[in-house]
C-alpha cells in the first residue's frame, strides 16, 4: 500500500511539473503499425523472425514491449514436455515517430505450432496502448520445425498436387499421406474453410492469412501411428461445397483443405492446399 501511495505521488508530481512546463497535457496513447510479421506467417525454428513496426505519438514516445508466447491450447494431453519459444522484451523509443526493425532468433528446439506475437507501447506521459481499442497489436504466427508432421496432398493416382479441382454441389475427394518421420502422430484436424488475407500489404505474403469459418471439420486420433492416409481418414465422409458457400467468399478469396497435425512431441503443423472451383 505504501509503495502504491509513493508511486501515485510520483506520478502526480510528474503530472504537475508537466502542466507547469507546458499547457499541453498528453492523454493520447501511441499508435502502432505492425508491418511484420503478418497474421499467419510462418518461421522455421533455428532461423530469424523479422519484426518491423512503426510507432507514433502526438508528443513523445517512451517504450514498447514485444512478446511471443505459444497458443497450444487443446490437444497436448498434458503428458508432453514441449519446449515452446517464449520471448518478452522491452525497447526504448524516442521522438514522435520511430520505425523499428529487429531480428529475433528462434531457438532450434522450439516446439512447432501457433504462437501469439503481442506489441504494446507507452508514451513519455505514461499513456499505454490497449486491446480494448485495438491500439495494442496481436498476430498469430506459426513456428515450423524438422520434427513436426508433414502432409503430402495427392490425386487418386498418388501424384502430388498443388491444388484440388472441385465441382460445386458434388462430393470432394482428397488423397494423400500424413506422416511423422521423427516420433509419432497424435491428433489430426481436417478442415475445409476460408483462409482470408489478414490485411492488404504492399509485398506478397503467401502465408499472411487467417482461418475464418469452416465448411467441414473433423477430428481424428492417430496416436502411435507414423503414417496415415487422408482418403482413409475421410472414408464415408461427404464433403460438399455449395454455391452459397462460394458466394460468401470475398473477391479473390479461395477455399482450402487445411490439415492440422499434432505429433507425440507436441509439435503442431498446419498444411493447406487450395480447392479450385470453375
Ligand atoms: Ca501521447
Ligand atoms: Ca514428430
UniProtKB/TrEMBL annotation:
- The entry's keywords: Signal
Question: Pfam families under this entry?
Answer: DUF4625
Where does the secretion signal sit in this chain? 1-18
Q: Which domain of life is it from?
A: Bacteria
Q: Which InterPro entries match?
A: DUF4625, Ig-like_fold
Q: What's the protein called, per UniProt?
A: Uncharacterized protein DUF4625
